[in-house]
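In the laboratory, one determines a bound structure by crystallizing the protein with its ligand and collecting diffraction data. In a computational setting the workflow is compressed into a single prediction: the sequence and the ligand go in, and a structural description comes out. We illustrate the idea with nicotinamide-adenine-dinucleotide.
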Amino acid sequence: MSHPFQAENRFADGAQYIAGQLRPGTSGREHAVVDPATGDPVFTYELAGTADVDAAVEAAAQAFPGWAGATPGERSDAMHRFASVLAEQADAFADAESLQCGKPIKLSAEFDVPGTVDNASFFAGAARHLEGKSAGEYSGDHTSYIRREPIGVVGSIAPWNYPLQMAAWKVLPAIAAGNTIVLKPAELTPFTSLMFAQAATEAGIPDGVVNIVSGAGRDAGEHLVGHPDVAMTSFTGSTGVGKRVAEIATGTVKRLHLELGGKAPFVVFDDADLEAAVHGAVAGALINTGQDCTAATRAYVQRPLYDAFVAGVADLMATVRLGDPFDPATDLGPLISHTQRDRVAGFVERARSYATVVTGGEAPQGDLAKGAYYRPTLVTGATQDSEIVQSEIFGPVLVVLPFDSDDEGIALANDTPYGLAASAWSRDVYRTGRATREIKAGCVWVNDHIPILSEMPHGGYKASGFGKDMSAYSFEEYTQVKHVMFDNTAVVRKDWHRTVFGDR
Ligand code: NAD
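The predicted complex, in structure-token form:
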């Protein structure tokens, strides 16, 4: 399989981006980025060590006063230029994302990259809309008002499943609000985060505002979270690592934002449009080879539709084309790595003892055998408390279970530790209305599953974390609220002083 992105040329100076320059890491440890479609290494770089994290935080701290002191209009102008540079380089971003992740090129080019450009445009506009809620004479003798101020240096950590969009979701609201940032992408997928930071520089965003440390979680990641000069940690990744990040962040009393794992339910009531639900389930389960925190993973189908739904999903899954990520006809690429593929296969193999694998459940042979591919997989007959229903698999695997009453369907949807996203399928507005109220998740779609918008928040309930990405809600998370109170009386001895000394 050939690919058009030459990482060796693009990152010849190294895979760390600090103060507007690429440079090599200094950890003494190398990491090979592997093309998941072939298993071949495509680029080797020296990982960031703690000294690189220190240098990046220092660069961000030095850039902070100037960037925070720019007017909202100046920041907005720079970010509009940033959006334009990203759009001009759309093809290169799509190629790099597909190479490092194994994503089908149509997904990178039509979802990841345009979504990122749109995010940049949205936050360029948002930069000019930072408002305090009120100003007024609440005590009679004083005027109070609210300032919203940037927090300082933000330290962000991102996963490998959507490296470009994760960089956008972390960097854009932070810098729109006047913060500076050090982002650590997953070590498997540094390319598009580095290109994103380079594009910021090309757009005229000052050196040090956006820095990238490409390093491992245990050293570079933990050092960034614990760094005393980092004022906020924004983490996206698994719930297990999120707990560790929370422990470390607590030690330095940082603001914390956690976007963690998911296990999204897909609830089909018996009056749903069956064909629409079948198509929605296959698309929702297989997007990004199932490596999507909001992917449809557990379909609950009311008994009258259950058999037809299972048959429809199995038939449609059989039409999905696995192949070279750079072939425009490819629907499903490999998983991110052979390790991840084997992990997914492990869930399915263990499930064979208590459930039925209706279709899939194997890696393809032939031309694709070298890559980390896994066939779309449909599992039925599992119980609600089984591993395959309760755990995040992060692969192209959909489990379908029947339910009888609406009460039961909603209860089952809520019965995992996660609460990131969900969908409800019905033609009855009262049924779907109830589902939207009672399902505990940060997003509930009705008669669709997956679409996201720059204007709307993305974030979890329960073990899926707290805090929001995208939208004005995320923008506000990257600011702190200050109450300013002016005395209006010019009185020397104020009435309240007698509670401390003297009489009235
Ligand atoms: P992960 O938790 O293994 O790693 C995420 C990031 O954390 C990586 O950059 C990794 O290097 C770093 N890391 C690992 N150990 C660390 C430590 N001890 N201290 C600091 N950083 C550390 O997750 P992953 O496998 O890269 O990504 C998949 C997970 O991400 C899934 O659970 C998925 O649901 C979740 N995810 C969530 C969202 C969301 O918005 N809620 C979005 C995308 C992915």
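The pocket of nicotinamide-adenine-dinucleotide is lined by residues 157-161, 184, 186-187, 216-218, 221-222, 225, 236-238, 241, 244-245, 259-262, 293, 392, 394, 420, 458, 460, 464-465 (CB under 6 Å). Keep in mind that any predicted model is a hypothesis to be tested, not a measurement.
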